Amino acid sequence: MNPKQTSRLRSLLLLSLAVLAACSKPAPEASAPTPESAAASTAAPPAPAVSAEVQAMGADQLREAASKALDENRIYAPGGNNAVEYYLALRDKTPQDPAVASALTDLLPYTVIAAEQSLARENFPEAQRLVALIEKADAKAPALPRLKQSIAASQQAATQRELDASKNAEQQAKLAEEKRLAALKTAADQQAAQQQAAQQLATQRAAEQARPQEPTRTAPANPPPAPAAAAAAPTTAPANNPPPSQPAETPSAAPTLRAISQPPPRYPPDALRAGTSGEVLVEFTVGTDGSVTSARVVRSTPPRVFDREAVNAAKRWKFAPISAPTTTRRTINFNPR
Question: Could you tell me which residues belong to the region Disordered (predicted)?
Fold first, then answer.
């Protein structure tokens, strides 16, 4: 190498050392090799450090190519077209050439730095190629064992990360599937419960419709005074002449209720949001003026959901005036649709 190339290499070496110090990280410790990894390394031998094309070149061609590669800063890359490979092939052809040995000695630190940088980027194929160049240039290079160990440890760590990521993805997919199935089961249970409630409600409605609802007559609040007792028969009446029998009183029929105003009940907001339907059997008393004087719940489905609104609605009803207060029952239905 000429002095100009040597000066350029020194500047490049200083820059590479600075970059390596800034981005280098400690390599993970390599665990014991597994049988699988040992078999894989045996089955797949590393590629030769110097390509066959470079080995086929003549000595003069190699010198010219190496000098040109140095001028263009192709010290160790790309593979098959770099100064280190050219000098290694030239050393094989001229092993006693001191200039070739000196050039390889000068270029070896750059190759070590490049291998460290490739390892930091987890570019393992490139790091292995550079380590092969270093080993061919100097099999006893101090950095060689450390680089090999770092590559093996980093590859193992990267493989483990991929395995962990794959397991995590499988676990996430399993959890998502379990959540989906749980949601489907919850929806099915809710639908079954709604269907059962609807069937019960239909059965109760059918029973209510089959049973006649007759209004019951209630006694007046202030009953009229009883008529005075009939005068006693004269004592001179013959003993064998009994008094005439009194005809039995027949109760009058309950007055017919004619509705004037029956505003619908208010739907409870919670039941409306939940889509809950039901019915309430209300017993109420209608006064002589046609207004409802009292109301109570006899039965409700579902219990206590619509009771208050059903009673409030019944109390707002208005009927035509009647002759006497009357108590009757009505079923109030609640349906959100």
Answer: 26-50, 194-273
